[in-house]
Amino acid sequence: MSTSIVYKLEFAGSIEDYPGERVVRVRLAEGSMAPWTLGLCMLKESVVDTFSIHSEDRAFKLHVERAVDEADENAGTIGVARGSTTVRASLSPTELDRWVHFFLSYLRDGYGSVDHMDVDVDGPDPMALVLHVPAAAAPVSRDEAFRRLGLQ
Q1: For the residues of 76-99, what is the DSSP string, one character each?
Q2: How far from chain centre, in Å, is Cα 66?
Q3: Where do the domains of the chain lie?
Q4: What is the per-residue pLDDT across 5-52, written as a single tens digit (0 to 9) for each?
Q5: Cβ-defined contacts of 13-20 (< 8 Å, 24+)
Q6: 144-150 own/partner pairs: CB under 8 Å, 24+ apart
Q7: What's the CA gap between 45 and 104, in Å, rounded?
Q8: Which of 49, 61, 76, 144 has the fewest CB neighbours in a 10 Å radius?
């Protein structure tokens, strides 16, 4: 039996077309972070097969599911038909782990280590899904980044 969960969340979604790539942006609001993260955790733990969100006005929808081929360690696939505002993301276990870790850390700390995370999918119709969080740690300078990485 297939199970799914659908949340109506406060977020802004957009689909932007650029030469050679399509970018799907999801800007989550602070009040959406806990239910979004809970949905991802339920998906990761196979409590649900599909996790979907839609904006309050139902103008934008995002469906997230585990990839069918779980042995494939690529990010997964992202699909959206031209002219549509419904996005389907099929994530590999590794990618889903990355999402869960990022958003659980956000809930713990109250901010993201960065202001967004993205998934790039190559292929005949290259696409990127960019997930923006409402609060993030201050960026560091190039010199500070090199110092932290021991490259200076």
Answers
A1: EEEE--TT--EEEEEE-HHHHHHH
A2: 13
A3: 4-148
A4: 787 888 888 888 888 888 889 999 999 999 999 999 999 999 999 999
A5: 13/55, 13/59, 13/60, 13/62, 13/85, 13/87, 14/60, 15/80, 15/85, 15/87, 20/126
A6: none
A7: 14
A8: 144
